[in-house]
Design goal:
There is one protein chain. Helix 4 runs parallel beside helix 6 and helix 10 packs parallel to helix 12. A hairpin with a 2-residue loop joins strand 1 and strand 2. With about 500 residues, this protein is mainly α. Helices cover about 50% and strands about 0% of the residues. The N terminus is likely disordered.
């Protein structure tokens, strides 16, 4: 009996230790964050514009809730404004990640990146080609910056290709390697860039193709983890690699103790802390001297862990004006339709809490919205050479094609990633209306389109459909021009689909 009691006591002690382990880990992480934040503030008494000793340090201190001295962030912002004025808003002519980095820091301290000394620092990110000139990392950090504040992408009149969130997402997806990871060059995944790509894609997993890419990326990252729980880049384990992986896992909501990321009983946090020094700094490689870049990346990785304890992430920053499902549709003319369709599961946000109402959308995305709105069952199709059975949109394209809602563009192609124009959307919705008991036609198209002076610009195939949408109140109520050949935006599509359901008596 005594032996039983001893065993029972031992079991209870072990159970209590196991129960307290996560709390102890959280306390250790918080203590390390405070120590590192103290070191950073001691080294950087007055931060300003710049990658080292500036923007990243401000991000880590602000997001982690460091106890900074009075005026610390105000001083940073004042120096930033002065610099932005001096360069007339041009931070760099080729390196557009500079804009993204500053947007992240500015948003973290509660400022609006659309007005820094009178300059909109998001405007350059509206130029897709220049933003991705550096490579896929340009797209990665552009998305992180835009999503941090739920910012809309501004129209850049000088851009050869206007950027959209979907274009940036597709740029990242297209750069994924066969092993599931990402790299700036070569065919073998790099831990740093794979982690960064996952950070940017984390908010877009409502899209099936993104979720599939993220799953592959997570598996690739897990396979790269070393026996001590750490990660290496270029053959050498570094503090920065471990920091980026920590941020990626927290953005994705994956526990550091997840079995996929525990090797030899060690986690990536264990590996990160191996680079810490007694004074709170971090070294680039194990046993090295204090390194500013390593220290600042470790700081914001630790901040990400602090935020994760309360269900928050490093790159998703609160906006006080948010009061609905999506934080970027407050006051938007299509808000009611967007929220109504979201409640029905017809549409998804571009991220978990943003909709990007003024962004464009692809033919594949439009198919998915219409098929869900009609309640059609997905059907796999091999009718189009550019739609694969493994594509997330295959079932939606198949259903829409089978119902006579969509046709290809010729030569056996569908162009799923092509932007959809207003006249194409109207044509598809007119066809879709027949599934709801409507005719999809009008007796006198000229009469129906009399209020639109640019109706003559519509292509012949779309005239009847545009007339049907006009006569049945499917077009936006405040529209005075059709602009038939222009790309339609997500908010307007939501409004037209909602108006169609109302015209058919479905709501």
């Amino acid at each position: 009996m005594k032996r039983f009691h001893r065993l029972l006591a031992l079991f209870l002690t072990l159970a209590l230790c196991a129960a307290l382990a996560p709390m102890a880990l959280a306390a250790d992480t918080k203590a390390q964050y405070e120590k590192t934040a103290g070191y950073v503030m001691g080294q950087i008494s007055s931060p300003g514009y710049g990658s080292i000793g500036g923007d990243w340090a401000v991000l880590g201190l602000a997001r982690g809730g460091a106890n900074v001295k009075s005026g610390y962030f105000d001083g940073y912002y004042a120096k930033l404004e002065s610099y932005v004025k001096s360069c007339q808003g041009v931070l760099h002519k080729r390196r557009y990640t500079d804009y993204s980095r500053v947007v992240l820091a500015v948003t973290a301290i509660g400022k609006d990146a659309r007005d820094v000394a009178g300059y909109n620092l998001l405007l350059p990110l509206g130029d897709f080609d220049k933003t991705v000139y550096q490579g896929v990392n340009g797209a990665i950090f552009a998305l992180l910056a835009l999503d941090a504040g739920g910012y809309e992408i501004p129209a850049n009149p000088e851009a050869k290709t206007q950027a959209t969130r979907d274009r940036y997402v597709q740029k990242i997806l297209s750069a994924q390697l066969t092993d599931g990871g990402w790299n700036m060059s070569g065919e073998t995944a790099d831990a740093d860039l794979t982690a960064m790509a996952l950070q940017a894609l984390a908010g877009y997993t409502a899209q099936a193709e993104v979720q599939a890419a993220v799953d592959r990326g997570v598996a690739a990252l897990s396979s790269m983890q070393q026996a001590d729980g750490g990660f290496a880049t270029g053959g050498a384990e570094t503090c920065e690699s471990n920091a980026q992986v920590i941020v990626a896992l927290t953005e994705l909501g994956i526990s550091l103790s997840d079995s996929r990321f525990t090797k030899g009983g060690s986690t990536v946090l264990d590996a990160l802390l191996a680079f810490s020094n007694a004074n709170g700094s971090f070294s680039h490689t194990a046993g090295g001297e204090a390194n500013e870049m390593a220290t600042e990346q470790a700081l914001y990785a630790l901040a990400a862990l602090k935020l994760a304890e309360s269900g928050k992430t490093l790159y998703k920053m609160e906006r006080p004006e948010q009061d609905g499902r999506f934080r970027d549709i407050t006051g938007h003319k299509n808000r009611e339709a967007i929220e109504a369709l979201a409640d029905r599961g017809v549409i998804n946000g571009m991220t978990q809490d943003t909709f990007a109402p003024d962004a464009g959308l692809t033919r594949a995305q439009f198919c998915a919205i219409v098929v869900r709105a009609l309640g059609l069952a997905e059907e796999q199709t091999q009718a189009f050479t550019d739609v694969s059975l493994t594509d997330w949109f295959c079932g939606f394209v198949g259903a829409a094609s089978s119902a006579g809602i969509v046709n290809g563009i010729g030569n056996g192609k569908f162009a799923p990633q092509g932007a959809i124009t207003r006249e194409q959307a109207a044509t598809m919705l007119a066809r879709a209306s027949k599934q709801l008991g409507l005719s999809g036609q009008v007796k006198n198209p000229d009469t129906a389109l009399a209020g639109y002076p640019d109706a003559a610009k519509a292509q012949a195939y779309a005239v009847d459909a545009l007339a049907f949408c006009a006569e049945n109140g499917i077009l936006e109520a405040d529209r005075t021009e059709l602009k038939p050949a222009e790309a339609i935006c997500r908010g307007e599509v939501a409004q037209m689909v909602w108006n169609l359901l109302k015209a058919a008596g479905e709501v």
